[in-house]
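Hi support team,

I submitted a single chain yesterday and got back a structure, but I'm not sure I'm reading the token output correctly. Could someone confirm the output below corresponds to the sequence I sent? I've pasted both exactly as they appear in my results page.

Thanks,
R.
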Amino acid sequence: MNFLKVLNTVAIMIPLLFVIVGLFITDLLGLAMISTILTGIIQLIIGVSYFMKFPKNNDIKIYFVFVVLFFICISFNLTSGWIWILPPALCAYLSILIYLPKES
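Hi R., thanks for writing in. Yes, this is the structure output for that exact sequence:
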């Protein structure tokens, strides 16, 4: 579980690091946007790993329902303003799942 926490922290820090450095070197702002795709891929891998470790956890199932909803909306070009709130919300939701201790 500690590995998932570290990997999640790294995934979140990649775009933030590019944004901070991009304030001084503007060419890196584009990399910050592209690195959010990498963050999403890493978060999906973390979500699958978490699901494999806790398959009966309903919270991770809710996470995947919204991930599927996001990709369906993107696939059918339903990209209204609200859909772009979903990736940061999913990132925060998965982070909360990983960092909060599990009740036994």
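A quick pointer for reading it: Residues 28-53 form the longest helix (26 residues). Let us know if anything else looks off.

Best,
Support desk
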